[in-house]
UniProtKB/TrEMBL annotation:
A GO biological process held by the record: phospholipid catabolic process
Region (Disordered): 1-20
Compositionally biased region (Pro residues): 1-10
Comp. bias regions, Low complexity: 11-20
Protein name: Phospholipase D C-terminal domain-containing protein
GO molecular function: phospholipase D activity
SUPFAM superfamilies named among the record's database cross-references: Phospholipase D/nuclease
Organism: Nymphaea colorata
Keywords (A to Z) from UniProt: Lipid metabolism, Repeat
GO cellular component: a single term: plasma membrane
């Protein structure tokens, strides 16, 4: 029996006034291509909390929910997402690329405020090493560039907060914000399948057989 791993035999429900209660929300994203009856005109869309952009009506409740959760976070933020880029208006370049969501800069500003307050806080972001598609394609390379610009912007804000707090040389930006790409490594086993024909040297199959490691793709959209 492992009391720290397995839950107690009986469920427990905390009261609404309990400071230890967890709030769980499930969101979905939709636009006027996936639902009937979305308003056509911007004013009507705005009245319903929707967003009108490029003749498309969008439900942005996920964006609003993420921002609210970031602002309410007290000790840490954990994110898994297939993509992680945004707040391009604060990048060092490509500020007009259209990646305008506020989640990255909200996280960076949250961490900066905690540093100034002398409180411990950390954010963990898990994404795939590269998104779906060929890594060398223009689309994937553009997304990776946006990822880099986003990370650079966040670390710049956190680094400035560290310096302003007089913690230069005593703290690192990685004490507060970390990005992870998951991978899998395999050990060669005697009983494993052996191809009847050896793969051509230099091809992807050959590299997989030789290196025995591959990225683990992250497709979830999760924040704790």
């Amino acid at each position: 029996h492992f009391p720290d791993v397995f839950p107690p035999p009986e469920s427990y429900q905390s009261g609404d006034d309990s400071s230890s209660s967890w709030s769980v929300q499930v969101f979905r994203s939709i636009d006027d291509a996936s639902v009937i009856g979305f308003p056509v005109y911007p004013k009507a869309a705005f009245a319903l909390g929707l967003h009108k952009r490029k003749d498309v009506t969008i439900d942005r409740s996920i964006h609003a929910g993420y921002i609210e959760a970031v602002r309410r976070a007290r000790r840490f933020i954990y994110i898994e997402n297939q993509y992680f880029f945004g707040s391009c208006f604060a990048w060092s370049e490509d500020r007009d690329c259209g990646c305008s969501n506020l989640v990255p800069i909200e996280i960076a500003l949250k961490i900066a405020s905690k540093i100034r307050a002398g409180e411990r806080f950390c954010a963990y972001v898990v994404t795939p090493m590269w998104p779906e598609g060929k890594p060398e394609s223009d689309t994937v390379q553009t997304i990776l560039h946006w990822n880099r610009m986003t990370m650079e912007m966040m670390y710049r804000i956190i680094g400035s907060a560290i310096n302003e707090a007089g913690m230069e040389g005593k703290a690192s930006v990685c004490d507060y914000l970390n990005f992870y790409c998951l991978g899998n490594r395999e050990v060669k086993r005697a009983e494993e399948y052996k191809p009847l024909k050896l793969p051509e040297v230099g091809c992807n199959y050959w590299r997989a057989q030789m290196n025995r490691r591959a990225p683990i793709y992250v497709h979830s959209k999760l924040m704790i």
